Structure formats: C-alpha cells, structure tokens
Amino acid sequence: MKNKINIQKTSALFLGVLLLSFLFITSTFAQVFVPVNWDLSTKQLNENEVELIFKANIDEHWHLYSQDIPMAPPATTFTFESNGMYERIGLVSESETISEYDENFEMVLKYFANEATFTQKIKLLSTEPFEIRGSINFMSCDDTQCLPPADEDFSFKINETNTEVQTKTTATKANNDLTTSISETNDTTEGSDTLIGFFFVAFLFGLAAILTPCVFPMIPMTVSFFMKDSENKAKGRMQATVYGIAIIAIYVFIGSVLAVVAGPGIANWLSTHWLPNLLFFAIFMIFAASFFGMFEIVIPHWLVNKSTANEDKGGIIGPIFMAFTLVLVSFSCTGPIVGTILVESAGGQILKPIIGMLGFSLAFAMPFTLFAFFPQWLNKLPKSGGWLNSVKVVLGFLELALGLKFLSIADQTYHWGILDREVYLSLWIVIFALLGTYLLGKIKFAHDSDVPHVSVPRLILSILTFSFVIYMIPGLWGAPLKALSGYIPPMHTQDFDIEKSIRDQLKTANFSSANAKKELCETPKYHDFLHLPHGLEGFFDYDQALACAKEQNKPIFIDFTGHGCVNCREMEANVWADPQVLSRLKNNFIVTALYVDDKTTLPEEEWIVSEYDGKVKKTIGKKFADFQISKFNTNAQPFYVLLNPNGEMLMQPKAYDLNVDRFVDFLDAGLENFKSDKNVTLKK
User: I want to staple 280 with a disulfide (CB 3.0 to 4.6 A). Which of 133, 297, 406, 658 is the partner?
Assistant: First the structure.
C-alpha cells in the first residue's frame, strides 16, 4: 500500500512539473505580453511642416527607457525610412523623464512610467500623398525583469484628406534575450521568427528519426503492449498518452539542462575549441561507419535492462520507464540527430535548445500515441525490411558531410590550413555523388537488400542529390554558393578565386600600393591570417580602427564575428555582397572585424584584465569577446555596431538579419546621425 501511495505521489509530481514546464515554454514561446502600446497621431504646424506624435501607454509597474541613456540597457530609438518626400527637422524629442539609480544595471538611468510622448517635426517636400514608414526599438522593464527589446513598425499617411496612422501593435518582435546579466542579442530574425523556424526544423528531424531502423520497428511492438488488454482500452490509451508525454519530457529535460549549462563561456568553448570540435567530428565519423554497417553501436545492456525491469509497474510509472527505454534503445540512431540540434542551438541562448528538443520530441512521440488510439492504422504501415537499412545508409552519408563542419571550425579557428574551401567542397562533391549513385542502386552495403529496379522516390532523391553536386562544382573556382555560405569555409581560404584575381588586377592597374596603404591609415594587425569578405579593406583591432576613424573623421562599422559563426557567413554572402551595402561599407565607414573566437596568442604587453570577470585575456578571441560583453552587454555573433571617432554609439546595434533593405537603413541612419552630430569634438 505504501509503494502504491509513493507511486501516486511520484506520478502527481511528475505531471505537475511537466505541466509547469509546458506552461513556461508555451508562454515564453508565444511572447504575447506587451506592456507598452503605441498610439500615433499627426499635428499640422503650418503649410509645410507636420509634427509626428508617438505616445507610449505603459502598463502599471513597468517603465520604458529614454533615448538618452548609456549603452546598456538599449535606449528607445526611432528609425525613419527615407523616400525623398520629406526631411526631418532635428531629432526626436521626448517628454519629461524620471532619473533614478537602477540596481540591475548599476547606473543612473532615465525612464518613463505610465506614459511617454515622443515627437518628430518634418518638412514636407511634396504636396502629393505619401507614406512615412519606420520602426521603434525599445525595451520595457519592471522591478524584477526586462523583456527582450521589441521592434515595432509604424506608418503615417501624409497629404491625404483623411490622415491615417497605422501601427503594428500586435507584431512585437523579440530581438534579443537581454537579461539583467549577460545578454545574447539577436535581431528580428533571431527572435520569435527564428525560434519558430528552428522548432519546425527540429520537428522535421523528429519525423526523420522515426524512419530509422532503431525506432520504426518499435512502433507496432510498443502500441501492441498498450492495447494488449482488450477489456480496458481506455486504460491503454491513457498509458499511451503518458508514454508520449514522457518522451517529450525526457528530451525537453535534455534541452533544459543544456540551456542552463551553456553559459557565454561554455558556449563559445563548445563552438570553437579544438577539443569538442574534434570530438564531435570523431563521433560523426563513428556513427557514419556504423550506419554503413561496419559495426553496431549499442547502449550497455545493464542500463537498458534496469529500465526495462521497471516497465511492469502500474499506473503511469510503467509508461514513463518504457519511454526512457525507448530513448536509450534508439540512441544509436537518434544520437546524431539530437546532437546536431543541440550543437546548432549551443550559442548561449536559453530558449533555443529547449524549443529544439520540444519540436524533435513532439514529432518523435506522435506516432506512438496516434497508433495507440487508432490501432487499425498499424495494418497500413509498411513492413520493416531493406528500405530501413537504406534510410540508415543515407543518414551515414549525411553524417560524413555534416561531420566535416566540426573539423572545419577547428581548422579555421586555429589556422591549421587542413580544410580550405576547395578541399571541403571536393569532399562534399564526392560524398553526395556517391549518395546519388547509392540511391540509383549502383552501390550496395553489407546489410542492403537487392534493388531489382529503381523506385520513383529513389529516382527523385537521386536527381535532387546530383543537382546539388552540380550546384557545388562552380564553387571550386570561386562561385559564392550563397545557399551554403554558412556551412562551408569562407572565400578567403580558396586558393583559386577568379573574382579575387580580377579584382586584384584592377587594383594593381589603378592604384599603387602606397595609395592603398594611405586609405587604411596603416597596415592592419593580423592581416596575414584574418580577412574581410568581398575585397573590403579594414582592421581587425579596435584601437587601430579608432585611431584611423579620428584621422579620417569617419564612423566605425564594427563586426563582432567568429570563424565558427554560421550566421556571420550567411550575412556576408547574402547581405554584405549586395551592391548597396558593399558600396556603403567601402566608402562611408572604417570597417572593423573583431573575431571573438580566434585562438592566436597576443604578445604579453597586449594582454588585458577583464572588467567583466577579472581574468587575464591572452588571445585575440578572448580579448574581443570580453570587449563585446563589457561594452555592449552581449556575447552573440554576428553583432554590428556603428561608432563615432570617439567610440560613442551612433545607432542601436544590429544583429543577424538577412533583409538587405533593413541593413541599408541601419547604415544610412547611423551615417546620418554621425553627420548631424555637430557637437562632436574628437577626444585625443
């Protein structure tokens, strides 16, 4: 009787914790709480001037920060899209603020409570109807927490009989996960939109895991276990439901543990240090060999047996242990898939690994629950056979290709020169060509069945695979391959690049080396092993960039980047390469790339003692990672900052965002603020 009571208590506790976890994840994921709402209006000052009015209605106990505050927390900023139909008169003014010492940020900050009013005067350059568009970036806090900075679009219709003002008050976007400690900043696409996308990617991974040989045959066996008591089908369905929920809970727990453990330092170490990257590379190669049939990976029998022994317990404890057994038994097939999701999400973020595991486990658990409710569906399932081994072999090829990414990251970070871009592409071309040949039945592995004819699905997959191979081939001669930009080594590692060769010849024909050096003020440090994309010239050291900015009186564009940063490469290939962006970076800014993961040791006289953690930083990466955290309160990459020659911020920083127009607006607004700041006196 005592054991039964303990089981009931344990079951109740388990369900309670699970319910609270799901409520937390769902509420955070939905991001529906908006403590600041905006009302917009216009006021006609005279025939040629209009005042735009932004009124913020702030919930009780919450506050909104002023435009005039230091770099942390983010100030309220207004961005206006230029259309040639109007010009701004001065800057945005604001109503009276409250100044108090903020214990969370340990500084005196200006903020608004209850309501705030911001106004911007504009001069009309046209009598035709037109629209003024832009966005408001702001962060709201109460006494205990701060919500992620939000980005709200606004729209004013001018010169119309019935002036209309439009706002998107329901489209609040989380740009970063800024907390009162270290923030992991992400722009619009790194907020809720990216989490939703990552959820669906993980969900697809979960569906793929079902088709592996370790999992698929267990569906009918597991469902039969729940339905074996024909007199109590309701009980079987209840237990099957608990079984599915338990699978989800186990995987979400794994993601939650990673979210807690993966702080800024650990995440950077996992992403860039040679040891974990070589370990991941070896694991992927071992799993690939296992999938090809070289050997079988199994969990120790004692662990599986101990879990199985608890499956016969009554109530919901039995299904929970069955779920744990499934996770253990299927590890040899799901391990690489789960590992890929966790590695992809290991960037210091709290939500991403949890969301990833939620998506994966939801898809993974779904068939077991559905087939338990509708057992007649089992008769329609295809029988286990050679096709399952084919799925396993295909995963083996994918493991080979994906595993190279880890070796490539270590290679770039430590400048080993093992996997240059053309070597990496050559390996991928061979791997996927062999995969296409296998799908056509021209290659057979140890456990494969005979393929008397090629089925239509295999033919379609082989066509897609060979098309991918053909797409990669021009990359051997320097084609950008934008779709793969985040997963292959950067262009500067390419030995033969036609575009670069032409660019160098033109530079030699038109400019002398003395002129080139003069444009950069001085030879950049670390230029022999660090490079900027698309022929850009710039610096890799902040002090050098600051000195050159003062000499040339130009704003500084800082790119906090990393060798192992997938999103950085995507931004460079898809946004920086755009002619509008590239021309602005070349002509208007001192471009500076600060690598936060480079392992090159600095001379002892350049070592610094961190203001953040008090430790000595001895490498390039640690120095600039500490600079990013200490000055901008974030450790995520990419992270773009515009500064004046005094090192003062011109604009709210920007992170990963593949929208070219928004990036152009970011650069233009920063340059406009630099030119309009007539009171800047250079500090020597």
Answer: 406
